[in-house]
Amino acid sequence: MSMKLAYWDIRGLAQPIRLLLEYTGTEYQDKLYSCGEAPNYDKSCWFDEKPNLGMDFPNLPYLEDGDRKIVQSNAIMRYIARKHHLCGETEDEVIRVDILENQAMDFRNGFVILCYRDYDKMKSRYLNMLPGTLKQFSDFLGARKWFAGDNITFVDFLMYELLDQHRMFEPKCLEDLKNLKNLMDRFEALEKIAAYMKSSRFMATPVNNKMAMWGNKKE
Questions:
Q1: DSSP string of 151-184?
Q2: How much is the pTM?
Q3: Facing residues of 65 across strands?
Q4: SS3 string of 8-29?
Q5: Which of 34, 99, 103, 114 is the most buried (most CB within 10 A)?
């Protein structure tokens, strides 16, 4: 039986999950919800279903795998990763995974605040801070092949998506960070990832939902 991943019809929190499902060769259904247009951005398609899903904390994204219903994007990532030994092989790798999982979410939350709130007011400050933020990730990666070490883990999928979104936002942001650029190239060259990105299933845009001030357009 295939899994079902449900989320809005955007990249958002679900894109790293989609990438991980594709990389692991997992059969899944991509259930997409679509909010209405401005000014109301009607979300009744989700809110009408939400109370009836039989989940402890119903939210998007959610993953169904047989009788299991899982919410929270990182819990979903870890669930899939555990099945395929993608959470780190050694204690040192596991520690690096745990650190980066949370650091990546902090990075993402800051970008979401920019995109969905005072974009025009905050953009200049965000761009000024971005090189320092990205250098921290570059320093953390160092000369390693992947963020945890020699073995790819689920946090590489989280970071790929965040870095790719930032390349879309500021195309030159990785120019001086060769190890991050190489990691992106290495990730995109993975056989199943490359095939997915060339397929009709791959969602290039939109990054964010319709009420966002950046990344809200399907191109």
A1: S--HHHHHHHHHHHHHHHHSTTTTTT-HHHHHHH
A2: 0.97
A3: 68
A4: ECCCHHHHHHHHHHHHCCCCEE
A5: 114
